[in-house]
Amino acid sequence: MRPISLAFFIAAATLAQASVAAESPSSHSPAYRVALLDSLGGSRSSGASINDWGLVAGYSNRADGSRHASVWYGDQPWDLGTLGSASGLNSTVVWPVKNHLGLVSGISLTDAVDERQEGWSCAAFIANPGSHICQGFLWAGGAMRALISLGTGDHNSFAAGTNDLGQTVGWAENDTPDPSCDPQSRQVLQFKPVVWGWGGAPRELPLLDGDSSGSATAINNRGQAVGISGSCDQAVGRYSAAHAVLWENGRVAELVNPNGAPYWNTPNMINERGDVVGFAGAPGDVDGNLTPPFQWTRSSGFQILPMLTGDIGGSAQSINNRGEIVGYAYPSSFVSHPLYWQRGSAAPVDLNTLIEPVAGYVLSIANDINDRGQITGYATATDGSKKRVAFVATPTGR
């Protein structure tokens, strides 16, 4: 794929097809028109982020089976590549990125080999059979650059969201071995929540007293960031997510889960109002199979969001500035369905009941919603092939 620039996206945005104006949410559920997005040649792709220009970021598998971070404007995928030159390296975008500048942040394997062979966070999202170092990246102006870790030497890092000021949040290892790390996940080094600026150097965010590791997952244009604080444990959560936290004006504050579960308390997104959504730990659920979605606001505090009858777990993935929330849930079969919570509504709706039918596919997960009401995620083929396709659902008739 040829490289594309920030200027392309800004120019293309002015030629976008008309969509929905940002009005107050109506009293009835909206309907959506779904577009399935082309892939890089493989059978799996997913949208993780959609900004207000309609730029989608996520991943697409290639014909050789490798997974690459990708962006779509319209249905055309663009391969963002990887941070290394070795064959078979993988990269992806995991969290809603949300800025209006065409900046994309995510994770990629590098050419360097991890001598500690840690599981690290990236293993939950991309295959790493060669035990390569994984690092966060920022893609801008047609080029991907690494976001360096804390400490010295080749360490892992992970990039989540980027705001309009070019600040990227995530987490990064330092040089300190930590006995609270989980030996089964082979995690050895502490990891700290960080913010990278345009200069590329990470700035460490404070943890709650007594905690040793943590991660930052999202940041808004006011500089408010959210994430987790806990022990080293796994770099993918559990006791590393003992506490959901908010960073503001250089200080950290806990978003207290009212059920008291000391694990899996993970914010996924914060909007410009400072409203936060994510998934919460459930008492006795150390494996994280029963996590309920949550919303936190300054006025209402920490609230568990309702799911559909029969659902046992799920996650609120994103919230826009209109207060609309998207995510997913699953029953005991663990076959997920996408959920939409309208602002002010007491109950979620399965997004599949709001869309025009898509032949051969069912929507599985909704990952992000922009201020125009457009939603991205992935749909799964109904023929048993397990083919996964990125989609954009655009509201109609508001």
Provide a short characterization of the protein structure.
It contains one helix and 28 strands. By secondary structure, it is an all-beta fold.
Description:
The protein is 2% helix and 44% strand. The chain has one helix at residues 6-13; strands at 31-36, 41-50, 56-62, 67-73, 76-79, 91-92, 104-113, 132-140, 143-147, 157-162, 168-177, 189-196, 202-204, 213-219, 225-230, 243-248, 251-255, 266-270, 276-279, 293-297, 301-304, 313-319, 325-330, 337-341, 349-350, 361-369, 375-381, 388-396. A 4-stranded antiparallel beta sheet has the order 1-28-27-26, with no helix packed on it. The radius of gyration is 19 Å and the shape is globular. The model is unreliable at 1-28 (pLDDT under 50).
